[in-house]
Amino acid sequence: MLKSLDLHPSKFYQWKGREGKENQHNGIQPKDFWLTEAERHAVIEYYQSHRREGYRAVTYMMIDEDIAYMSSSSVYRILSGAGLMRTKSIKKSKKGNGFEQPLQAHEHWHTDISYVKVNKRFYFFIGVLDGYSRCLLHWEIRESMNEQDAEIVVKRALEKYPQARPRIITDNGSQYTGQEFKKFIAFHGLTHVRTSPYYPQSNGKIERFHFTLKAGTIRPQVPLSVEDARRVVSQYVEYYNNTRLHSAIGFIAPMDKLMGNDVIIVQERKTKLADAKARRLELFAEAS
């Protein structure tokens, strides 16, 4: 009989030995029906007012704001059932491939220059981003992008964090390959790493910030002067560093990651989730 069922005898006797016993080989699995209608309604209502955020970010935002407590998979099922999920093609991530990621703040600083068009004129956004926390440490919108401009922005970031001695990661732009920048790096006791030629993804952390900045601020708000551009960028950087949950660092705000508050935040989330699960179990037991 076992041969006809393609079942190994040892597996059969394992099953037979568990006959009549409580099923203990699997842990307790969460059940969708533990979620109350009020919780489902709260998730849908919150997501409708935060449509620009992904469902994972919304999950942790709701936990932090004490709106609802559940896993991201539960949030996905609720939103999908309500027809609110956006579909998109998924490409294989290349994050971290061939590059040693920093293990603490101020170990890697990424800097780069991006064009910013303001009222038919191009200016230059130069920023310094911490690779561990994704926090933007310093930025400026300047009228030129020569070697001196790049040095000034990095120097002002160092003035904010005088104890930092990071590895400066740049592309191969002329601002970062000249003798003056090399002297600047040596004078401040730093190390400098340039990315592979014709491969800007090597400096992808700040490249990604540039994309987010332009999509979230410059293009939709259309500043009419450089002063206006600096104002809207300043507001966005404040939001980005202190409020926006970053998916690459476990849905923690970059400034919290930089300051080491992420451990406390993660523990608070786990406590809230455990408490919510216990309350649902009690409600389920009472209903049974």
TrEMBL record:
<dbReference type="InterPro" id="IPR036397">
    <property type="entry name" value="RNaseH_sf"/>
</dbReference>
<dbReference type="InterPro" id="IPR050900">
    <property type="entry name" value="Transposase_IS3/IS150/IS904"/>
</dbReference>
<dbReference type="GO" id="GO:0003676">
    <property type="term" value="F:nucleic acid binding"/>
</dbReference>
<dbReference type="InterPro" id="IPR001584">
    <property type="entry name" value="Integrase_cat-core"/>
</dbReference>
<feature type="domain" description="Integrase catalytic">
    <location>
        <begin position="98"/>
        <end position="262"/>
    </location>
</feature>
<dbReference type="GO" id="GO:0015074">
    <property type="term" value="P:DNA integration"/>
</dbReference>
<dbReference type="InterPro" id="IPR012337">
    <property type="entry name" value="RNaseH-like_sf"/>
</dbReference>
<protein>
    <recommendedName>
        <fullName>Integrase catalytic domain-containing protein</fullName>
    </recommendedName>
</protein>
<dbReference type="Pfam" id="PF00665">
    <property type="entry name" value="rve"/>
</dbReference>
